[in-house]
Design a protein that fits this description.
278 residues; alpha+beta; 5-stranded mixed sheet
């Protein structure tokens, strides 16, 4: 048994959903059967993964605390090649503020309430109790990892978990969609009109399905296609508060099925939000 698999199983016992990371510290790419979501890996069309092939596909959505899955033959190859273990913070109700350099750490110590911290290669992870969306680059050297994201497991850390503060949520205000986690009530976007222009939930569902189809049918220029689709979805549905993390997850899954990395998806989404002044 590899060292990484052993560590993953120890975390799974505590109910922490984990997944292997490849040599570039990213989730393993979708297998050939899962490209373009051919595997049907979006149960009820609400979120990506797990997929029918039972391999660690669909990025963060592959994270699991099921030891039978982690030790299955389908995952054996990934563990043999793994360079690290990651976990899904949002899956256990946590948010990780990823501080990527000493300057970011100094800012956090001056600005954020104390909480559990974990040292990293270049900085620290500050972990809070609570969930939110997961934008990158909310300020220089600071990323947020929670829902629809993953973080490297670097140990349990030290200190007592504090509740997710408003100052961290506020960091994301200019970087993310007004969407909220699917389990929470949708709220109007800052500066939005408040009233929902959609004729019915079917209208929104049809729009998301058409966006997925446009991404999946792209034969070239996938980077531009993903950005343009994200821009169109946000322009049409992003200001009234109806979008949920489930909708965003479907779009990200479609893009990742075409070979886009999670990072590229996050950047494209953030750029579309910024272009629309949200």
């Amino acid at each position: 048994m590899s060292t990484h698999l052993k560590a993953a199983l120890e975390l799974a016992v505590s109910g922490i959903p984990v997944l292997p990371l490849s040599r570039d510290k990213r989730p393993f790419a979708n297998c050939s059967a899962c490209r373009r979501n051919a595997c049907g890996g979006r149960p009820n069309m609400k979120s990506p993964g797990p997929c029918r092939c039972l391999r660690p596909c669909h990025g963060w959505a592959a994270a699991t605390a099921d030891s039978a899955v982690l030790t299955s033959k389908a995952w054996a190859g990934a563990w043999q090649q793994a360079s690290a273990v990651a976990y899904h913070p949002g899956g256990i109700g946590l948010t990780v503020v990823d501080l990527d350099n000493p300057q970011a750490v100094a800012w956090a110590r001056h600005t954020l309430p104390p909480t559990r911290t974990v040292p990293t290669t270049r900085g620290e992870h500050w972990i809070y109790l609570g969930m939110m969306t997961s934008p990158n680059a909310v300020r220089p050297g600071v990323d947020i990892k929670s829902l629809m994201s993953y973080a490297r497991w670097l140990g349990p850390g030290t200190g007592t978990l504090a509740a997710l503060p408003d100052v961290v949520r506020a960091l994301a205000a200019g970087k993310t969609t007004p969407a909220r986690p699917a389990a929470r009530p949708a709220v109007s976007a800052p500066g939005g009109g408040g009233a929902c222009p959609h004729r019915s939930p079917v209208y929104l569902e049809r729009g998301i399905a058409m966006a997925e189809q446009r991404i999946e049918e792209a034969s070239e220029g996938i980077h531009k296609t993903v950005y343009r689709v994200f821009l169109a979805v946000l322009a049409k549905h992003g200001r009234c508060g109806c979008l949920t993390d489930g909708h965003i997850g479907r779009l990200f899954a479609a893009a990742q099925g075409k070979g886009e990395s999670l990072r590229h998806c996050e950047v494209a989404w953030s750029n579309a939000v910024a272009a629309l002044g949200m």
